[in-house]
Amino acid sequence: MRLYLTALKPTDSVTDGFLPAARALGCEVTILTDRPERHPYAVGCDVRDPRALIDAIEHLGRPDAIFSNSDHLQAETALAAGYFGLPGKDWRACLTAKNKFLTRRRLAEAGVERVFSARLAPGDPVPDDLPYPLVVKPREGVASEDVLLVESDLAKAVEAVRARRPGEAVVVEEYLEGPLRTLETLGDGSRIGVLGGFATTLGPLPHFVEERLDWAPEGPHEHVLAALRAIGAGFGACHTEYVVTPAGPRIVEVNYRVIGDHCDFLLADVLGVPLFEWILRVHLGEPMPAMPESSRYGTAVSLVADRPGTILTAPGAEETEHDGVKLWHQPLRQAGERVELTHTNRDYLGVIRAVGPDRARVEAAVEGYRASRPWVVG
After folding, report:
1. Beta strand pairing status for 376-377 and 309-313?
2. Is the bond preceding residue 133 a cis peptide, omega within 30 degrees?
């Protein structure tokens, strides 16, 4: 079987997740990327242009599957899969999920929920009559970059985001107050299965840096599934973030790919399933497997730099097991690197993920590990 995988920069999800899964399924893999020198099995291609993508695939050989885990390439990859008559996502759903203003508009039109949202193109005047608090975010941003809670002076906040993102549209929307949750799903185009979800702990406002995710599979799934159906996001993996507000659940964003920041590996660990293989199998035309249940508990703790400086101490990659808890530490930076705070997940130094029979033992393992192997920035 021939699998084409589109990518931009290398990620652990692809390198350590999807590529081994593809090999386990017997796939011949070609990575199509604009950075071929940074990937194995890579061919250079303007992957942001579906015409170039289709042309490259036709030249290289007919595919059995075309897949991407990149936030930025879902619509282009879906168009290429559709051209070759392969299972894949609806490009319109990919575009709607990526564009936060279109997401809000589609959910309102479908009667799923109404959240105030205004799109500001470059040069548009900033409204001065909106009720605070508000959230300003890039229309198609990722990693919580340039997402701000605004309690006053909206024009100043919009100006600051525009200065860092010239030529890009921004979205201003009402602030959703309440616990932040996720729902992880997998669909085959006919059915959407719920894998589970996480409770998210954020760092200090006004920024929205995710510092920790804890396994929390229960929640208002029907509302989220209704939102996914309205958008058309029913094929492959999907990672949806929502807030449980006093008025009910409200969608924050729909990420039409598997959850990231090593929580994809955590999800596979908690469920005890070959998650990356499952995702690739539906792209190869296989039906979605039965959704598993798990009595295990898991957490992913992002080790976030709290100050700028030079990394003096950086623990290495490690896997441990004690008292029924398996723990993995994955460094994302190294000693000697300079840290400049961005208030996004680019401030992560490393990630600890742990899975065990209950929360108490998992908590003890994580705290013990952090105490014995601290990151030091000075």
Report:
1. antiparallel
2. yes
